[in-house]
Amino acid sequence: MSALGSRLPAETLTRCSSDLISDLLEVKGKDILYVGDHIFGDILKSKKRQGWKTFLIVPELNKELLIWDKKQSMFEELKRLDFFLAELYKHLDGCSQECPDIIAIQTRMKVLTHRMDMSYGQMGSLLRSGSSQMLFASQMLRYADLYSATCLNLLHYPFNYHFMAPPVLMPHESKLRC
């Protein structure tokens, strides 16, 4: 913003439109990293309207990470139980008469999910319930190119660093486990 700051008083920066910023800086869409703390008012609007790269500030992430570090083993156990359930049903189809007894596994999964949720306090996690992502987590992943608890984390990278998402396979592209 220093290039813009030399052309306009700082007051104007707080009230100017995204179109004006793009024109004054002579940059377009992907060349701007917009930092905001509101997923719809900041992140979604700037991405859809201008095509800007977006960085979402989520202060609650610090608490989420502290708890996740302590409780990750419960999540891993949930994943193992889910895989075990899938294995029980793997060779069954709509014509199968046998019905595996899964009550003990389901009960253990419910207990683990409840314990994980309560680790985050009465309101639970902002990002997940048990092994499932909450709506806010899916919106973060969908709309924000980057997210962090603070924009100060950007100081760990050079000014001209190019952030890129890791390549992700679609379900039909990944190898099937037999």
Q: What's the short story on this structure?
A:
With 178 residues, the chain is mainly alpha-helical. Helices cover 47% and strands 9% of the residues. Belongs to the 5'(3')-deoxyribonucleotidase family.
What are the defining features of this structure?
178 residues; mainly alpha; Rossmann fold; three-stranded parallel beta sheet; two-stranded antiparallel ribbon; 7 helices; metal ion binding
- Ranges where pLDDT stays below 50 over 5 or more residues in a row are none
Task: Predict the CATH topology of the largest domain.
Answer: Rossmann fold
Tell me about the largest β-sheet.
Answer: 3 strands, parallel
What portion of the residues fall into strands of 2 or more residues? 5-15%
Gap from first CA to last CA: 54 Å
Tally of individual domains: 2
Shape: elongated
- The count of DSSP E runs of length 2 or more, i.e. the number of strands, is 5
CATH superfamily of the largest domain: HAD superfamily/HAD-like
Quickly name the level 1 CATH class of the largest domain.
Alpha Beta
H/I helix tally: 7
N-to-C SSE series?
HHHEHEHHEEHE
Main sheet: which strands, in order across?
A: 1-2-5
Helix coverage percent: 40-55%
Mean pLDDT: 85
InterPro entries: HAD-like_sf, HAD-SF_hydro_IG_5-nucl, HAD_sf
Family: Belongs to the 5'(3')-deoxyribonucleotidase family.
Keywords: Hydrolase, Magnesium, Metal-binding
Pfam family, one: 5_nucleotid
